[in-house]
Amino acid sequence: MKHFFYTLLLISLIACKDEGGEQQVVIIDKIATPQLLLDQANNLAELPLHCIETEYPNKMGHVTAAPEDQKRPTEQHPVFYGCFDWHSAVHGYWSAVTLIKQFPELEAREELLAKIKRNLTTENIAVEIAYLNTENNKTFERTYGWAWLLKLQQELDTWENPQGQELAQILQPLSDVVIERYTDYLPKLNYAIRVGEHSNTAFGMVFAWDYATHAGELELKAAIESKAKEFYMNDTDCPLSWEPSGYDFLSPCLEEIDIMRRILPAADFHQWVAAFIPHIQNGKLDIEIGRVSDRSDGKLVHIDGLNLSRAWVLYGLISQYPQQYAALQETADAHLTNTIPNLVADDYAGGHWLGSFAIYALQNASHVPEDL
Fold this sequence. Notes:
The chain is mainly alpha-helical. The chain has a single domain (about 5-365), classed as Glycosyltransferase. It contains 16 helices and two strands. The chain has helices at about 40-50, 75, 85-100, 110-120, 120-130, 145-155, 160-185, 200-215, 220-230, 250-265, 265-275, 300-320, 320-325, 330-340, 350, 355-365, and strands at about 10-15, 25-30. The chain has a two-stranded antiparallel ribbon. Strand 1 and strand 2 form a beta hairpin. The radius of gyration is 21 Å and the shape is globular. Residues about 1-30 have low confidence and may be disordered. This is DUF2891 domain-containing protein.
């Protein structure tokens, strides 16, 4: 099996000379855990700065019932019209808010704030709600876009300044619609969706669970816990060696771990994950870093997202249970370190969304205890 062979691909080289004057190379096979610092934040801020007001190209994902339903993106979605599609616009806003909050000296801070405030208005949110209430689009962005909207709401809720609180209040009515839709939908879903793309059930549950915990949305939280146990509690021997599928940006196996570590008590979770992925506590995962052959292809570049989402799941697991899963840290570090250099100044096919994945992965990396 592959396990950690790929960590040797990411090494630090130190050159020195021996007594005979010949250059020697000392190989250090420990990969430093990446951190989100100001320079990196300035680079990543370029992605939402560029895309949240970029109307075209645009993939609408819209069901047209009549000729008058054909509208330009800025009319249909006056808040979330940029970044190629609705969900990417949502997490473009999340990226901007996250960086503004964390880095007061961010170079693009004022420009990003101006763009957010120009578009995220009470009037524009009313149009977004009206769209979700049209008969043919009530399932629009279910559940990937829903999940990211709740992530954005949580980020605004926890922004402790007047601007943040005002924006949180403006967005809340749209989030309330999503919460209602989510709570209504989950009991009707008879089977988990176990793919590596947008409709993955476990991924959507993770962000919704975090929001429900933050906001005290007990009905939503109960619906998620019930379905997660129903779908995943009896899963064993997840076929990691089958991953990735060619268009994956999520790991079906690891996304299950991400939700189950949240909802299960510690002892139950450790027992469950030992059966789900045997030997995981020893750091043994049958995965290698995903390779992208063409970053101008919107589907093929998904694999960069897979590397980043794998990293954030593993960092989250290590942060919650460092004594049990610390051996996974090099796997996470290798995925993140290998992928981040590909993101900025890359083709719009990946640039319109991958920055959010990098920021979230780096957030999770920062929660890993330093003494591991």
